[in-house]
Amino acid sequence: MTSSSVNRKTFANRIDWFTLFLYLLLVGIGLLAVFSVEYKSTDPSFFMPGKSFVKQAIWLGPSLFVGIIILMTDSKFFSSIAFLSYTIAIFLLVITIFAGKDVKGSHSWLGIGGFAFQPGEVAKIFTSLALARFLSMPETNFKTLKDRMIGVGIAMLPALIIILQNETGLALVYFSFFLVMYREGLPNAVLIVGFSLVGLTLGTLLISGKILFIIITVLAVLIGVLIRKTLKRDAVARILILAIWGACILFSQVIVPFAFKKMHGYQVERIYNMLGQEVPDEFRKEPTPGEMEKAKKKDTDYNVRQSKIAIGSGGLWGKGLLNGTSTKNDFVPEQHTDFIFCSIGEQFGFAGSFVLIGLYITLMLRLVHLAERQRSAFSRIYGYCVASILFFHFAINISMTIGLAPVIGITLPFLSYGGSSLLSFSILVFIMLRLDMDRQVMIR
Amino acid sequence: MSLAANPRQYVVRFIFIGIALVMLVRLLFLQLFEDKYKVMANDIAIFRKVMYPPRGVIYDRKGKVLCFNEKVYDLMVTPNEVSKTIDTMQFCNALGIDTATYNKLLQKARFFNGPMRQGVFIQQLSPSQTARFQENAYQFNGFQLLERSIRSYPKPVAGVVLGFIGEVSPGMLKTERFSSYLQGDYVGKDGLELSYEEVLRGQRGVNYLEKDNFNRPRDSYKKGALDTPAISGRSLQLYLDQALQEYGEKLMQNKLGSIVAIDPRTGGILAMVSSPSYDPNLLRGSDRAKNFSDLYSLATKPLFNRAIKAFYNPGSTQKPMTALIGLDVGAITPSFGYPCAGGYYACGRRIACTHSGGGHAANLRLALANSCNSYFCDVYRRSVDLGKFGGVKKGLEDWYEHMFSFGMGHPIGVDIPYEIGGTLFDSNAYNKMYRGVWNSCTNVFIGMGQGELAETPLQMANAMCIIANHGYYYKPHFVRAINNNPKDTVLAPYLEKEVVTHIPDTNYAIVALGMQDVVERGTAKVAQIPGIDICAKTGTVENKANINGVATKLQNHSMFVAFAPRTNPKIAIAVAVENAGYGATWAGPIASLMIEKYLNDTIATNRKALEDRMFKGNVISKYVYILDSAQRAKDRLREMRKMEAQQMADSIEQARRWRQVQFVVDKYYYRKK
């Protein structure tokens, strides 16, 4: 197929309607979810200005408008502005540290004439573009350590600044770029070590010591059986697998319990509370009177406990639309933003949650599919960036509502209430759609 | 760039799907395998609101309201939900209390109901408090208004009959009858409110409401599918005549005693006055406890229903019954006479009679009219010593049975609680008292209503019903109908005719004639009402009391029993005025005025002076106060002894428990270490 034949296709035919459809569907579900948590039977009318779902619907306008503009822009535009926009984004982020509004202790919001936005959200787009541009440059050789360091630098610089803004949750999302860089040739070990550490940490906290010991040992034996030929030949491999097994056991059975014994009672409690878990008896301590006061003031596990109650009470089919007693009556804090998944879990039960998670996974796999069919590396890498960012948001957000991950304030893409969040995710997706329209064109 | 498939894209896809699967497994556990979250969600979000039904209204015989419901609000509080940032000043201003009271009440609620449960903060707010609270209710998290209704009485009459309601006590909760009640529920505590509790209370309803995180009720849960409506209590229609009751209470003011008026045809009680009476409106609302203790501490005991709880020697009012028994067993005939010369000497000492000679006891009618003591002492002795019984002990058994069937010696079964049965001795009791050595002279006084015979005014009135009806009665009762249904099963026991044993009509007729003579030419001429044949009997009852260790003879009790008219009687009445003198001086006029009021609805002008004298008479004896304070001192002493014993028992129990705890600790705790 030549590029001329591609150009003969109509504008509409070149758009990936399936992705667009998934995007609109998710935004629609988001509006419904925000509406349902705010609904009160005493409301005088359905449409009330000032309600979050109305604001969200209004925000959909600019989002789609910007989306259409993007679709009509030249696809080479995005790669050409990549570095410039990245520089501006970094500049904005730095300014925000000093000029940012104080919202719940973080300085990540910038106010421009009565309108507030989070540069950290928007910076994701430009970081994606910059990373894609850098990795796709012909002079970049991602197998060299220097270029790898530059790649990691591009991804981590905004994260560093955002941490300085005291918005750790958002910074965590930038780690999603490791997934992209893995696809582009970062060693396997990075991913395996990363995931294993996360898994081991969560496992230590969520699973009791003895069971975890068994799981780790079984895993070690299984891997040993799978690579038994290598083990026979290679003494280093044998020592390595033993060492990893030993380190895991040491970490989960000795270091963590020891650290918890040394830590203050409220600190241990805090760690468990972030996961919405009760502190196990073995680590429970009698708090000193001073700590008791501290403990009274904060109620960190309240969010997760309420969120788990809301989702857990949904059952298989849920309580039905507008019948969610926990979400409708404000028991879950931040339920129209970070904890929006609760309203789905409560009102539509396991079935609804299954469908929603299915939609997200479909969208991400579709994005990976789109990325893989690009002719130019820039488009492909950018596609992976979009998929990875969505994935991190999705995975961390839903995991924290069901007590699998610590409570980190990041939004659920398309569903959570919030204008700048919706706008930035829309831009992310629409740029990918635009690039995909020109998938046969080499973009540098 | 090669377009060949990169294997790492599959790793990425695998990671996406893998994480999603982990989430789904977790959701599976959360939503399908664990039930506790459903329970927890309901616990936090569903508010069970108890709906109290309106209590049944009580009407008098003419449909006038005696007791109805007024709406009031209780302020409830859930201590832990009261936010620390509450504007205490504003709250206190709205309720008109000071901050110290606020803290005290909050502490109290926390203490009694715990921090998480809703408890009473202030009971029965005044309308202005309610309005001011409601204006700002949204600012006061943790506080809620609970609508309740309280009893209200348009006229301050019949307090002891209607009774009162109050919070169910811990003692009541332990009984089977009230085991389904919850602490804080209101329940009838005396009078009709208690006896007809099940009828009046209705059925509590429950509304399930969704509440939000600030405990504010929002919508009904599941659109009210689980709600049960409150069913209103049923109303009572009484025989009681409000006007007559009010009139009786007015007649009895400044006197101690009681009036019981019964319609003999139905057993329905037309009026029951216990004097001094009190305004039932005092025993409702937030001042109930204070007013109750005030009333309770009065020496004249207004809360004590003298009509059913006080018992007196019947005195001469016993004489018609003595005559009836004498006639029935065949000891005398209506023409039997006794040559009384001012006293009865047959038992070796003089029993005085107020009359002497002149043939005042020449036959039964005359003896009744003149109330000859000697005559009835003789009749009593003849009755029990009758040859056919073969001994006084058998004879007294028969006399006892007659009296028992007249309703003496046991509670008759009126439909208000705590009725007393009075005193009626049988042979066994006398055997115990005199170690088996006694004869008809020993207890000859009971023939004229003194000695070991005591009756409540209700029993006296009921005996009048029996004579009026010529041998039967219906259990005296107040309630004519429930929800206008006179045949309600609850009322079944009162619809049964109680027949008194085998005394022929002619005997009743002759006694009734004698009683008519009492009014027309005997001791109770004062009770005459033109145009109405009244049958009556006066009673003047000697009584003594132990005052400072000295047995002192007190002023006589004034008694009067009557029924009218003689043919086709419509009212039977008993009046007792304590320590007032002759029966004809106080009780007689009161009874006759009551009869006149009931039958004629007005008092004849020539009797206005009598009426006025009754209204104004004050015959409360000073002994009442002396006796009362002596009794209270005795009660206090007894109470103190009881408390000391209780404290001793408690400390022993505590020591025993402590030893047990020590034992467990020693055995299990230290050994483990």
The major beta sheet of chain B can be summarized as:
6 strands, mixed
Shape of chain A: globular
Distance between the termini of chain B: 72 Å
CATH topology assignment of the largest domain in chain B: Beta-lactamase
Beginning-to-end CA distance, first to last residue of chain A: 20 Å
Mean pLDDT of chain B: 83
How many alpha or pi helices of chain B?
Answer: 22
Q: What is the multimeric organization of the chains shown?
A: heterodimer
Overall outline of chain B = elongated
CATH superfamily caption of the largest domain in chain B: DD-peptidase/beta-lactamase superfamily
Uncertain spans of chain A, ≥5 residues at pLDDT below 50? 1-5
The fraction of residues assigned to DSSP E strands of chain A is under 5%
Number of strands of chain A: 3
Structural class of chain A, by secondary structure, is mainly alpha
- Encode the helix/strand succession of chain A as letters: HHHHHEEEHHHHHHHHHHHHHHH
Cα-atom radius of gyration of chain B: 35 Å
Helix- and strand-based class of chain B? Answer: alpha+beta
CATH class (first level) name of the largest domain in chain B: Alpha Beta
How many individual domains of chain B? 3
Q: Please give the domain count of chain A.
A: 2
By CATH, the architecture of the largest domain in chain B is named: 3-Layer(aba) Sandwich
